[in-house]
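Q: what sequence does this backbone want?
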């Protein structure tokens, strides 16, 4: 007997697509992040109807208490809310335009948790609103472990009423849910935060590399800088030097953690957004160029703190 059956949740959709739980959520995009998030919704008592283009992802979702749907439209039909966790803006826009808008019942709420460009997020929310649906952009901070553990932070953009409706659903998947303002502001918060993270990690790495060349022991530099004005999250929570500070991906050969490729994606979104509003982001530009170099070296899959190896000439 699989986990879904044990939990009494293995149900095929009936003709009207209405299982008997109080709230039914369609979940589209069950990859590295979405898989764990959908499992947490099911664990919290929501009836989850899952759709993904990948058969493996669907099978895993079913094992974690979701019901599989044969298409995005079938998942959405009759659902009270729709959560999407997709790779990029073009996937989000096509899923909503081609399937969700046409199949959703009146009054359904839409939550896009993917990291996408601000312009697409605002366009899709505007289209949803014009059709009478509430919608929020709700990108996350936290990686796969936080998605599995239900400890994500959600930065949410959208109208007050849509945020109020979205909050309990997001709380079932995370530890913090913060309203960042109107449509697209969740994405804006996410890319500004990650641009800051990308730049401070580069600065932390180059400082450690230079300290070593000047004859300072990395642990000694950490002991000083972590209680001085150079302190940052990149140093004290995610130190890029193996054996220094708390346990981080650096202690595991830069495996796991937050991949260079994902940091690069977020920096490209940040640069694009900066250009759209004429914001000057010299540090963001420099960070993007450096993570691009790392990716070109074949390191897109390693943790982003491996930047220190490149700066040390390794
Ligand atoms: P992923 O590639 O593992 O998952 C995306 C899933 O979407 C895949 O299973 C894919 O088959 C599915 N998909 C694509 N197009 C589809 C469609 N038209 N219909 C149905 N399913 C479709 O990606 P992920 O790591 O889970 O990331 C998802 C989002 O979360 C991205 O926007 C990413 O930037 C963001 N994010 C990721 C992390 C992380 O650590 N992985 C952290 C924060 C935010």
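A:
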């Amino acid at each position: 007997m699989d986990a879904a059956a044990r939990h009494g949740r293995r149900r095929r959709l009936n003709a009207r697509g209405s299982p008997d739980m109080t709230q039914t959520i369609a979940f589209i995009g069950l990859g590295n992040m979405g898989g764990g998030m959908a499992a947490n919704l099911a664990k919290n008592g929501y009836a989850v109807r899952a759709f993904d283009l990948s058969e493996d992802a669907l099978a895993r979702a079913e094992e974690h208490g979701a019901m599989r749907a044969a298409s995005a439209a079938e998942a959405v039909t009759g659902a009270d809310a729709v959560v999407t966790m997709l790779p990029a803006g073009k996937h989000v826009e096509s899923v909503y335009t081609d399937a969700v808008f046409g199949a959703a019942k009146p009054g359904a709420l839409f939550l896009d948790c993917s990291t996408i460009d601000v312009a697409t997020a605002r366009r899709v929310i505007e289209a949803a609103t014009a059709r009478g649906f509430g919608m929020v952009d709700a990108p996350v901070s936290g990686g796969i472990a936080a998605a599995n553990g239900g400890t994500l932070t959600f930065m949410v953009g959208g109208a007050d009423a849509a945020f109020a409706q979205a909050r309990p659903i997001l709380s079932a998947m995370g530890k913090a849910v913060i309203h960042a303002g109107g449509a697209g502001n969740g994405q804006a918060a996410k890319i500004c935060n990650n641009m800051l993270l990308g730049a401070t990690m580069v600065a932390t790495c180059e400082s450690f590399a230079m300290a070593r060349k000047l004859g300072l022991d990395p642990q000694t530099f950490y002991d000083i800088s972590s209680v001085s004005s150079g302190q940052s999250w990149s140093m004290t929570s995610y130190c890029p030097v193996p054996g220094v500070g708390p346990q981080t991906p650096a202690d595991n050969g830069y495996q796991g953690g937050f991949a260079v490729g994902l940091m690069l994606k977020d920096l490209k979104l940040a640069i694009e957004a900066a250009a759209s509003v004429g914001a000057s982001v010299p540090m963001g530009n420099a960070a993007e160029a450096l993570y691009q170099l790392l990716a070109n070296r074949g390191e897109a899959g390693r943790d982003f703190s491996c930047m220190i190896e490149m700066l040390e000439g390794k």
